Amino acid sequence: MRFRMDPRAKLYLLLLANLMLFFHVSLAAEAIMAALFLLLFFLSGCYAAGLRLTAIYGVLLALDFMRFSQSRLATIDIYGTFFILLGAYFMLWYCQQVLTVGVNGAVLPMFLGGLDFGLGCASKWTGIYAGAGLAVPGLPEQPRPDAVILGYPVITAGEYAHRGSFVQLAGEDPAAQQAFSLEDKITPRTPPVFVWHTMEDETVPVENTLLLVSALHRAGVPCEAHLFEKGCHGTSLSTAEVNHPSAHRSRWLTLAREWLDDTFDFHLGTGETGG
Q1: Which of 155, 254, 257, 274 could bridge across to 208 with cysteines, CB 3.0–4.6 Å?
Q2: Which residues make Cβ contacts (< 8 Å) with residue 275, sequence separation at least 6?
Q3: Tens digits of per-residue pLDDT, 48-57?
């Protein structure tokens, strides 16, 4: 015999669900109403329907208990934070797609980034602040430094690459790694560069610096380069604290300061500027 639910029981079920979802009635009242209703199913032999509804009401009651086990920060603010972080991730994905396959291949991450921004705003009004951060990758003019100082830099993803760096950036795919290679991205708007390297560097070959200097020269970008014969990768200041001390190699710091003096026509030792 097939069990048919009385229309009044259906109304009672809907009323109970609304009370549990949208009204702040006590948990005890919710549990009693649910138990009385579910008891009718089991007494009438509808065990499958009773078990199914018991599971549904159990989940609803568990969600209601969250307000006692979690603070307001955990139940409201955390959702805004989650969607903001997710939106930032999709915007990073968008930027990577633009670099590798172009704008047409970056529609999905752009859509997901905007969607998560909207969800963050809907969760908490402070999510609006994230809009400025998510919009930065799309600004027509990116912030540009006035000058750049580089030491034994990783430049190329080609033959002389420090492969581990590019794997961390783009994975094992050589085509994806090439998007982060810098020697083919130098333009006349690249800021002036001071760069130094050592000929003995076996971790990041000196060819990285040579490729950079060549690209800078072709683009007409002011550049000063110093190659030291001795020294391993990571020699830093070439003092006893960080590497084998070398009075000669450690002069790169003085050279860089003097280069900054000349580049900006400002001499740190005297505080005088040129005419």
Answers
A1: 155
A2: none
A3: 877 887 888 7
